[in-house]
Amino acid sequence: MGRIVVCGGSVIGSCTAAMLARDGHEVTVLEADPDGAPPNPAEAWGAWQRRGVAQFHQPHNLHARFREVCDAELPGLTDRLLAAGCASVDPLAAQPPTIADRAPRPGDERLRFVTGRRPVAESVVTRAAEETDGVVVRRGVRVAGLLTGPSALPGVPHVTGVRTTDGEELAADLVVDATGRRTRFPEWLAAIGAPPPRLEAEDLGFVYYTRYLSGPQQPVRMAPAIVPMGSVSVLTLNGDNGTWSVTVFGMAHDPALRALRDPAAFDRVVRACPPQAHWLDGRPLDGVLAMGGTLDAHRDLVVDGRPVVTGLALVGDAWACTNPSAGRGLSIGMIQAQLLRAVVAAHLDDPGGLVTALAEGTAAAAEPFYRDQVAADHRRAAEMRALADGTPPPAPDPLATAFAAAAGRDPVLFRGLLEMVLCLAPPSEVLARPGIRERLVRAGAPPGDPPPGPDRTRLLALLAG
Ligand SMILES: Cc1cc2nc3c(=O)[nH]c(=O)nc-3n(C[C@H](O)[C@H](O)[C@H](O)COP(=O)(O)OP(=O)(O)OC[C@H]3O[C@@H](n4cnc5c(N)ncnc54)[C@H](O)[C@@H]3O)c2cc1C
User: Fold this and answer.
1) Which helix (H) or strand (E) holds 369?
2) Is the CB of residue 9 below 6 angstroms from any atom belonging to ligand 1?
């Protein structure tokens, strides 16, 4: 069994730590933020300060893949989320009326998920990790750099621990970077003389405006969680303890959207969207929360088939993050945490093999979701920009459009679409299944009408008041 240091004690760092400790490893989590979660998860929304997570109060959906990995690797966590008031969601309950065959099918239970506001869910997850035998969580401790020892692979620096900003040194057989989208590990690598990792980063310019509300019951879902509506998209998410959120997002490039910071303008726009208007029928918890500057970023420790470092693993947003319109970050992070557990079990004594096996496993199990999201983001950003500028939008992706239209009529394709959205299977896997392409052709559905809501002219009028 090994000594493992996890840098970053947010959702993915905590779950990774708990999974590794269940295999008998001695795991220390170092979290820069000083405060732990309050005893009552429902109070975490207002009472928990998390400067280290800029998106702490932004809308989060815990997709079905998140629940599936929890159930496999951290038994009891889903029940704790439910006990904290998180909502149990059956996405098949929102099948469109155009699907005639509504009979349940084997595997339907896989689509269910349990979700809540990020602070509430995170408070449950971090407390569960703290209570796991073998996990020690130290808060208010910031990692500043890496320690090295004799190389395991010729010419490749080997990490043997971390140094904190207070100068403390902690030895480890493996250091896991779970410090999120603003990870400093490329600088840490440079400081130990490692070659640079493979890095991709791009800000497509999405900006999010969100209101949280509460009421005696969750709004009835009359449209998918995310609906593209010309130059904006509207996102409606269930929360915990009788709360939910409504988000309007578009491009920072579109200055008219800044008016959405005003709750009155935000409400005028959402009220003009028939399937989402009733999501405003509740007590607002806050004004409008805005966030932009969210990078698509991907980092890899294996360059041209060779590790740039050993003794270090990346999980969660430290490995890759996308603009969050698809809300997949936590699910992808859980896929990686699960993978890391298996890779550590097989390779802890073989640092070179560990880095390579993790890179290969990540490329197979997690990267398809990242690549799919980046491609979808590029298409949507180009469309939003063109509509805001009054220029012709680019042609939509024909396969995605045909799939979405056909999924509105075919129960198997609808489930396939949910699997893609809920991070259970990437599009390449769903499309490769026997019979799927035949169903697509058979459904032959023309693209549906645009969702009901304001066109660009009306949107600008609503924003202007
Ligand atoms: C607007 C928005 C909406 C989103 N919506 C969704 C959604 O609906 N569903 C979904 O699954 N995902 C969503 N995401 C993505 C999700 O927030 C991230 O994928 C997730 O937070 C990644 O978790 P993490 O544990 O890897 O990193 P983080 O949550 O970013 O945590 C990193 C932790 O590391 C700590 N830290 C940083 N530096 C150091 C250091 N040097 N030493 C010690 N500790 C350090 C920080 O304090 C923090 O606690 C959204 C993201 C944004 C921006």
Assistant:
1) helix 367-389
2) yes
What span, in angstroms and rounded, lies between the C-alpha atoms of 201 and 182? 11
Is residue 330 lining ligand 1, measured as CB closer than 6 Å? Answer: yes
What residue spans in the chain does CATH classification 3.30.70.2450 cover? 206-294+457-464
Which ligand 1 atom sits closest to the C-alpha of 118?
Answer: 17
Q: Strand 3-7 and strand 174-177: pairing?
A: parallel
Name which residue sits closest to atom 50 of ligand 1, judged by CA.
324
The torsion of the CA quartet 95, 96, 101, 105, rounded to 10 degrees, works out to: -20
Question: Could you read off the pLDDT tens digit of each residue along the chain, which spans 465 residues?
Answer: 899 999 999 999 999 999 999 999 999 999 999 999 999 999 999 999 999 999 999 999 999 999 999 999 999 999 999 999 999 999 999 898 889 999 999 999 999 999 999 999 999 999 999 999 999 999 999 999 999 999 999 999 999 999 999 999 999 999 999 999 999 999 999 999 999 999 999 888 999 999 999 999 999 999 899 999 999 999 999 999 999 999 999 999 899 999 999 999 999 999 999 999 999 999 999 999 999 988 889 999 999 999 999 999 999 999 999 876 788 999 999 999 999 999 999 999 999 999 999 999 999 999 999 999 998 899 999 999 999 999 999 988 888 888 888 998 899 999 999 999 999 999 999 999 999 988 988 876 666 677 788 999 999 999 998
Assigned architecture for domain 206-294+457-464: 2-Layer Sandwich (3.30)
CA distance 62 to 304: 34
Sign, CA dihedral 304-357-332-111, equals positive
Q: Does any ligand 1 atom lie closer than 6 A to the CB of residue 422?
A: no
Q: Is the CB of 13 under 6 A from ligand 1?
A: yes
- Report CA(297)–ligand 1 centroid distance (Å): 13
* Closest-lying ligand 1 atom to the alpha carbon of residue 333: 26
- Going by their DSSP bridges, the two strands 283-284 and 243-251 should be labelled as unpaired
Residue 122 phi/psi, 5° resolution? Answer: -65, -35
Count the alpha carbons within 13 Å of 51 in the hemisphere toward its beta carbon. 7
Atom of ligand 1 nearest to the CA of 30: 43
Which ligand 1 atom sits closest to the C-alpha of 181? 30
Concatenating the DSSP letter of every residue in 331-356 gives HHHHHHHHHHHHHHHHHTT-HHHHHH
Contact residues for 139 (Cβ-Cβ < 8 A; gap 6+): 9, 31, 33, 34, 35, 36
Closest C-alpha to ligand 1, atom 35: 8
| 60 close to ligand 1 (CB < 6 Angstrom) | yes
